């Protein structure tokens, strides 16, 4: 399952679409900046796709073993509504998949297939970002754990932001730093990059950049 896990230490990427906008992105996704890394990335996608198709094919053929297709000889005329399924089940690949499915207990296939499909749709990396819009506010975003759901986002208007600071806390026996936004009218602060909790050096760069971009420069 090595190819199904694309994880690396959190790294910061800063982009500035305009002079009044800056986006800070912290991600554990490895950078595909060389030919071997690109080949590994494409291989991972191919393995995911192939494994997902195989599991679904096993599910389908196992289900058809309990509910077989009706016989059709073409003598009665009319259209064979199950023709595409019949064609898939009778070719070489379909016969091989059906042979494998017949030798699997349906409970073991269901459990193993569910775990395999989770590995296929699992994102394998975490990406969190904060978009700063001068005079408007900030938008935080955290990627979902799977490819089947969208990222979690929240927008905080500038008028509601009372302060932005770096704080420290204990996580087990380790001291971790985190970037927080104090929002007016809320008891709890909003933690930026809550899942990754990057190193202090990254947080300090984000904090300085956010302060410089969020508010209008004093004349």
Automatic annotation (TrEMBL):
Residues 129-194 form the Phosphatidylinositol N-acetylglucosaminyltransferase subunit H conserved domain. One of its GO terms (cellular component) is glycosylphosphatidylinositol-N-acetylglucosaminyltransferase (GPI-GnT) complex. GO terms for biological process: GPI anchor biosynthetic process. Pathway: Glycolipid biosynthesis; glycosylphosphatidylinositol-anchor biosynthesis. InterPro entries: PIG-H (IPR044215), PIGH-H_dom (IPR019328). Keywords: Glycosyltransferase, Transferase. One of its GO terms (molecular function) is glycosyltransferase activity. It comes from the Eukaryota. The keyword Glycosyltransferase applies. The keyword Transferase applies. Belongs to the PIGH family. PANTHER family: PHOSPHATIDYLINOSITOL N-ACETYLGLUCOSAMINYLTRANSFERASE SUBUNIT H. This is Phosphatidylinositol N-acetylglucosaminyltransferase subunit gpi15. It comes from Diplodia seriata.
């Amino acid at each position: 399952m090595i190819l199904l896990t694309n994880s690396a230490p959190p790294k910061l990427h800063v982009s500035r679409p305009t002079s009044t906008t800056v986006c800070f992105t912290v991600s554990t996704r490895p950078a595909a900046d060389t030919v071997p890394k690109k080949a590994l990335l494409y291989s991972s996608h191919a393995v995911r796709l192939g494994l997902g198709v195989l599991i679904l094919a096993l599910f389908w053929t196992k289900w058809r073993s309990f509910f077989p297709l009706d016989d059709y000889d073409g003598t009665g005329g009319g259209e064979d509504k199950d023709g595409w399924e019949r064609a898939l089940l009778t070719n070489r690949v379909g016969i091989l998949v059906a042979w494998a499915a017949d030798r699997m207990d349906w409970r073991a296939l269901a459990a193993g297939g569910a775990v395999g499909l989770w590995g296929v749709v699992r994102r394998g990396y975490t990406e969190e970002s904060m978009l700063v819009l001068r005079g408007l506010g900030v938008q935080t975003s955290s990627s979902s754990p799977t490819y089947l759901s969208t990222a979690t986002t929240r927008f905080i208007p500038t008028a509601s932001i009372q302060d932005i600071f770096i704080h420290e806390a204990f996580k087990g026996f380790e001291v971790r730093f985190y970037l927080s936004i104090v929002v007016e009218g809320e008891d709890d602060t909003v933690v930026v990059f809550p899942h990754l909790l990057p190193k202090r050096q990254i947080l300090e760069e984000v904090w300085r950049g956010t302060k410089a971009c969020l508010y209008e420069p004093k004349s």
